[in-house]
Specification:
The chain is mainly beta. The chain has one domain: Outer membrane protein transport protein (OMPP1/FadL/TodX) (Porin, Beta Barrel), CATH 2.40.160.
Length: 356
């Protein structure tokens, strides 16, 4: 059965985007909802004994909804512990962070996929006796599995003038359809809260320090670019029950560059409980570096979040401003995230961290 000629640009776009992921890691608009993927030094950096996070992203459904091409989707989950050094009764606020994270990413017609499991270890050092100023160093190591489905790919020479013809052989030479590689990364993170509703944080991390080979062809050399990630933000009260939380993310990986900046407005249900129930809403703006090395607008992100007891639930939607706007009608990606922070039987020491 031949595909209509009008669908060809969509299929070519899907094919190109499938292989475009070689150059850049998957990303999330709600980057603070996936801390272990951003910086291993954020492992254990929370107010509690354990933390569970999960986030799901789906994008380009507006382009591919009428095609057989699956959507681009990414899922990540993590679990990490804050382990006080010397036990909970020790007067020191120093702690170890121990975490495990999982990432699943699948892209387009080729079903180009990544499954990864990473182990994180961090040391959180209190820089004062009150436990208000912390410096953390973290390391990450893991194993990743890449895969691709060549049978779903369509090539230019398979179009017979009126549509796609699967009877025409692509005459392409394919490599393996999967491979496994090991990956390591490291980071540093600083956090300071002078008051319950006032805090500052900043971090820097480097991923893929070992630059693992990404080629599906044996003997070829396609090293994964190292990824440099910088983050920072503040939380300040601007009203009796209103806080402002501006923050930024900067990522650079080979030719790919991304900056995201914005702010949450946090509405507290009770002003004397900074870790209590709250509602967040705010805009974020993402810019990227194009193929011609020029800086271009990519998306306006509308995000919201709810804190209830020890749980948080977040939502985000990307309004696309890139060169794909004509095809997407400005509809980009949708995300949903969940977080739970809790204590064990013994109440943890309070450090008033934001719920990363």
């Amino acid at each position: 059965m031949k595909a209509p000629l009008k669908s060809a640009p969509i299929l070519v776009l899907a094919f190109a985007m499938s292989f475009g992921v070689f150059a850049q890691d998957p990303h999330f608009s709600e980057y603070n909802a996936s801390p272990l993927n951003i910086n291993p030094a954020m492992t254990g950096m929370f107010n509690g004994n354990y933390r569970f996070t999960a986030i799901y992203r789906s994008q380009w459904s507006s382009i591919l909804k009428d095609e057989s091409v699956p959507m681009f989707r990414t899922f990540s989950a993590s679990f990490d512990l804050r382990l006080p050094i010397g036990g909970a009764k020790n007067k020191s606020y120093d702690a170890f962070g121990l975490g495990l994270s999982f990432l699943n990413d699948k892209a387009g017609e080729s079903e180009f996929g990544t499954n990864g499991v990473n182990l994180n270890l961090a040391y959180l050092k209190a820089l004062d006796k009150q436990g208000k100023n912390f410096l953390s160093v973290g390391f990450q190591g893991g194993v990743n599995f890449r895969s691709i489905n060549y049978s779903n790919l369509r090539f230019g020479n398979q179009f017979d003038g009126t549509g796609f013809n699967p009877q025409i052989l692509p005459n392409e030479t394919f490599g393996d359809d999967h491979f496994t590689f090991f990956d390591i990364g490291a980071g540093i993170f600083w956090y300071y809260f002078p008051k319950k509703r006032t805090n500052f944080w900043a971090g820097f991390a480097v991923s893929h320090l070992n630059r693992p080979d990404q080629s599906f062809y044996e003997g070829a050399d396609a090293k994964l670019f190292m990824r440099y990630t910088g983050t920072g933000g503040v939380q300040v009260p601007i009203g009796q029950q209103v806080d402002l939380l501006p923050s930024f993310l900067i990522m650079s990986q080979g030719p790919a560059f991304e900056t995201q900046i914005g702010t949450f407005i946090k509405l507290l249900f009770e002003s004397n409980k900074p870790q209590g129930n709250a509602f967040y809403i705010g805009p974020w703006y993402r810019i990227v570096r194009g193929e011609d090395k020029s800086i271009a607008s990519d998306a306006l992100i509308l995000a919201t979040r709810f804190d209830f007891a020890s749980f948080s639930l977040g939502f985000a939607y990307d309004l696309n401003f890139s060169e794909l706007t004509a095809a997407t009608n400005s509809r980009g990606a949708f995300e949903v995230s969940a977080l739970h922070v809790g204590p064990f039987t013994q109440k943890p020491k309070v450090i008033y961290c934001p719920r990363f």
